[in-house]
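User: Some background: our group keeps a shared notebook of sequences we're curious about, and every so often someone picks one and asks for a predicted structure to add to the entry. Today it's my turn. The entry only has the sequence so far, pasted here. Could you supply the structure so I can complete it?
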Amino acid sequence: MVALLGDLSLQDDYTHPLGPESNFNESMYFNFFDRTRRSGGFVRLGNRANEGYAEMTLALFQPDGSVLFQYGRPQIHANDAMDAGGMRFDVLEPMQRLRTTYDGDAVHLAEPAQMADPREAFRNNPHRRVQLDLVHEAAGPAYGSSGGTREVTDPGKEFAKAHYEQHMRVRGSVSLDGERVAIEGLGLRDHSWGPRYWQAIHSYRWLTINFAPDFGMMVSKIWQTPERAREGGVVVRGEKMELISGVEIDTRFDDNGLYHRELDAHVTLASGERLDVSGRVLGFIPLRNRREGMTTHVGEGMTEFRCGDAVGYGLSEYLDQVV
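Assistant: Of course. Here's the predicted structure to add to the notebook entry:
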């Protein structure tokens, strides 16, 4: 049985009672990267049942730098399953084994930066049939919080009351127009529930990294306001997890100052150990979320990371509110 850290229980791996907040969101997210093929991707379902829809996202980074992408808001009216828009997540063994599937189409972007204008990107690029079937197995402890007894006083300023993550081994396949490709790699999963608006925070930098089945990192820096940041994360070595107490990230952007391409992260563990990590983005797609006149940019980069002699793969996700 995999270790559970914080106040988590096995039951937390399933969906939770729908909260009263209009923006109650329960989301599951899985990323995966196959170092042999130098490709990977992520899938996400966010149930917003009180608003009548789910957010469904698929992104597959290809070895040639192209990206297959799909996003939808299929209708839902309950929070009893993660199953919408052709995507489904099943808990096979709580906190240990989960399955993700997708059967539908996706736009194939030879130039993924075109997604800055989603309407034109979907209209002017070819669509392909995608069938995905992956099993994600625990490669370390689940870490985070179920939210405990913390009261929600202002749902409009919440991002994720309850939230946990876990490094995973991933096996299965992805088929493009019927051509099956086996996937064997590593990744990370994320599960959160509670009221959420993407506009509730100023910005964040989120790095999910797997160097080996027994060596992974999650590095996080979140700005609630431009002046106030929260730094943290974990380093997982086998079943042992160490907390990150300090994070410094230097980033090189494209000329637009928004699309990240390279980074250097300097993390300090609670024990005092310091680790230096560099990252080079291999595949990138700009995504966005809009609400009440606000636009939130989310830059997704499949990234090759290095820490000393270790080389790994993962995702660098940058969120910024665009003025």
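Suggested note for the entry: The longest helix spans residues 118-124. The chain has one domain: 19-322.
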